[in-house]
C-alpha cells in the first residue's frame, strides 16, 4: 500500500472516530440527570472528573474498535456498539450503587464521587475494549 493510501486511511479513521466520540459524549450528556457541561462552566471539579472519565472511557472503546477493525465500516459498527455498551453499563453500575445518588453528589461538587465515576468509566471502557477482539 502506498504512503498516500495509508495516510488517507489514517485520516479517515481519525475523522470517523472523532465523530463517534462526539456522538458518544452528546449521548452521555443528554441521558444524564446532571448537566456536566453547565456544572463545569460553574467550576465544579466533580463534574470535570465524571465527564472526563466518560470521554476517556469512550476513547478507550473507540481505540479498540479501530485497532481490531478490518475496515472503516467495521470500526463504525463496533465503535457504535461499544458506545452503547459503555452508556448502558455505566447506568447499570449507577443502579447497583443504591446508597449513593450520583446526580446529587455531582451537583453538590463531591469530588470523591466524581473520581469514582471517572474510575468507573475507565474500568468499563477497558472491559469493553478487551471484549472487542476477534
| Main sheet attributes: strand count, strand direction, barrel closure | none
In total, how many domains does the architecture comprise? Answer: 1
Strand content: under 5%
- The computed structural class is mainly alpha
Radius of gyration: 16 Å
Q: Tally the beta strands.
A: 0
Low-confidence stretches: none
Output mean pLDDT.
92
The secondary-structure element order is HHHHHH
Any idea what the shape is? elongated
The CA-CA distance between the termini, in Å, is 24 Å
Helix content: over 70%
**Count of DSSP-assigned helices:** 6
Structural description of this entry:
- The structure is a single chain.
- The chain has 134 residues and is an all-alpha fold.
- It has one domain (3-131).
- Helices cover 81% and strands 0% of the residues.
- The chain has six helices and no strands.
- The chain has helices spanning 3-31, 36-41, 45-67, 72-95, 102-107, 111-131.
- α4 crosses α6 (111-131).
- It is elongated, with a radius of gyration of 16 Å.
- It starts with a helix and ends with a helix.
- The model has no long low-confidence stretch (mean pLDDT 92).
